[in-house]
Write the structure tokens for this entry.
Amino acid sequence: MTQPVTDDKPPGAPAQFSLSFPSSWWHLDLDPRNRDNAIRRRIEEQTRGQDYVSKDDVDALVRTTRKVAREAYGQGALRAAGMFRFIEDGSTLMAATVVLRVRAPEDGSADLAELLLPVAMKNSRNPLGRGTPANSVDMIELPEAGPAGRITSIEDVDYFGKGTVRTAMMHTIAAVPNSRDFLVISCTTPNMSLVTEFFEVFEAISSTLRFQD
């Protein structure tokens, strides 16, 4: 699936981008007119026949997924996707990816390495995940999109004002060629015991980014 990179494409900039997801992931409908019903319908369909999944479990997941979609839409996301799976022991596997477009300020630098310096300083003060792959800021090379920045961190995220959930995050930032725009691929999961495995999935997703004319 390809989508527009930018609404006001500068000369020489690519017109579209593509990103691939595992087959178990599904794309969230961000349109407010369809979003809530589409999310509930998809979750109910996927949990049908799973007797160990209660109505409360389904309702909680619907609320969480709607929140992700609502916030993604509010941020102007270009795409949002996610996966979930209820396990018979009562736990849930969850992850989400949101693709955003940001633009470097016209009066500032558009050099990605320079823009990442404040993020690196902030991460260094975060005690969660310090000294592990879950707390890092690096420059990487994407196979089809070239140089990019990668930020990993662990944050306590407030869900619905009812308390925080410790969440692992990976953000991959790729410069849109011949422009001051960046695509940010933000991946998150609350499954802290599987951070390494989910980070491998997040890396695989971001590695498929490709800009197209």
In short: The two ends are 14 Å apart (CA to CA). Helices lie at 35-47, 55-74, 112-124, 195-206. The CA atoms of residues 156 and 166 lie 4 Å apart. The first strand starts at residue 2 and ends at 4.
